[in-house]
# Entry
Amino acid sequence: MTPTVLTLDTAVRDAARQFEDAGVDHPMLDVRILICHALGIDRARMATSGERMLSEEERKTIRSMIGRRCRREPVARILGRREFWSLPFGLNEATLEPRPDSETIIEVTLKKLAGRQDVSILDAGTGTGCLLLALLHELPQATGVGADVNPQAVEQARDNAAALGLDTRAVIRISNWLDNIVSDRFDVIVSNPPYIQSQDIPTLMPEVRNYDPLLAMDGGSDGLDAYHALIPQLSQRLKPGGFVVFEVGEGQAQSVGELLTQHGFKDISFHEDLGGITRCVAANIP
# Structure
């Protein structure tokens, strides 16, 4: 039975023990994040408030959060938000958690634009909208479209655009890849499509396999289904001289580069994330 939580120190010690028993990585870090959020305090105040008595309502909130994390629900989903490119993004069950690896797309795109500002951007499979909105945040004269097949994801991306003050420059549409993007051409197309091989999904850590949406993860038997669907459409959606930047899974860069070459793209380049894994493939349309 879970012991009665009376003080903040007691809550921290008990939660850390439960996280260790549940196999949570970095249990004390997660405890601090969740309890600070539950109490509306920062870590400095938490460190000096160990003897603070907790109200019954506070105990209930903490118990709920700790229980969710013990079931391996990710911290960001419990909080309902995740930071990406130093910006806050709301999440829901239809969206992937934005992850630092995907910031490589932002870095590559900004470098390829080389200071150009007045550009149009398409984010295919936008999810939270993190790629499109991070780029618009960096490019004050740019406009863009985010496309996603899931109406819940579209709703979340629209909410994120409004919260960041970018909704006047970002249009979020329901579209199965580019099917409903028929009249527009863009300077840049970015995408983080599903690329995990179907047979690998049961082997993922529980935080991913049980909470990230399958539609946004499953890339088919070789992980490349989405690239086969998207790449043939790209040349009709890019302005002359435009370019595409894809996120790819480990070991997939060469195959995606070959697909791009087969469909008329030039100047294929490969870019590593902070872990040294080739995470992005970029290519230009002549």
User: Anything to note?
Assistant: Residues 8-71 form one domain. The two ends are 66 Å apart (CA to CA). The chain has two domains: 8-71, 82-284.
